[in-house]
Structures are given as structure tokens and as C-alpha cells.
Request: fold
Amino acid sequence: MQFLDRIPLTLALLGALTMGLAPFVPEPHIWEKLKMLAAGSLTRPMDIFDFAFHALPWLLLVAKLARMGLSRS
Reply:
């Protein structure tokens, strides 16, 4: 978990806001993939890879924030 400590929070936030939301128009890509997941239509391998690719920065940010929160306790 030391790799999370070495990542600056601003870099994790920037990654989530850019790669996590790109492309921004007509709607953020991660939102489209989450709707597909909820509808059960996220079945094609390319869509699953795309979902993982756009979700990774958000997961990294959440893990970083959780790690920061737990270390303060």
C-alpha cells in the first residue's frame, strides 16, 4: 500500500476528473458504462475493458482517500 502513499492527491484527483470522465460530451463515458452495467447490457469485452479503464482512476482516488482517512485515525 506504500504506492498509494507516494501518489499525490492532486494527481489522483486530476486522473479521475480527466480519464475517469472523458469524453465529456454528450455524457461522461463512465456514466454511460455504469448505466449499461445497471441495465445488464455491459456484455461485450470491449465495453467491459472500457468500463475498467475509465473506472480505474476513480478506484485509485477512493483508495487514496480511504488510506489517508485511515492513517489519520
The chain has a mean pLDDT of 90. The helical segments are 2-6, 9-18, 29-39, 45-72.
